[in-house]
Amino acid sequence: MRTWIAIGGLLVAGAAVAVPMLVPEPAAPELDQELLRAVAPVVHADLPVNRKVVWPGTAGGRWFCAERPVETRRDGDDVRFGLLASCSEYAHRDGKLVHGSGFSGALVVTLAASPDGYRVRDVELPPDGAGNSAALKRMFSAAGYEQVQRSAGHGPDPAPEARAAFGLPADAPVVPR
């Protein structure tokens, strides 16, 4: 009986080691670093004023966005830049950063080349609710979609940029309005 238990234990231990080796790592989405350096600043400047992403504020503040690149893809003459973005409206009061409205999620920005670099042509956001997953699968490559799914709930934080813009210390508290 002990022999069978020992053999069973060896089989379980062997499977625990072998299975992770057989399951491939998810493919990384394409992220062209040269292209990223060209388009990321354009997108960063556009998002806080783009009405597809932000809306008229209620806290009397300014919108700030932070982005995490997921993928870059060429689509004819256009560039499709998939990213995770968090945008929030902030004001400052009594040494504190006051948080108003906000958005956080995956989106794809389409950019066109222009004589001065790139310009934003469109920003695509998935719908909330039932159609979200299907839209993300359509918007991103398979590898990009998997990365977005793995990153859910871990978006970038725009608060450090807002603190700096308002001249607040890096550890200034963020409070709701």
Automatic annotation (TrEMBL):
<protein>
    <submittedName>
        <fullName>Uncharacterized protein</fullName>
    </submittedName>
</protein>
<feature type="region of interest" description="Disordered">
    <location>
        <begin position="147"/>
        <end position="177"/>
    </location>
</feature>
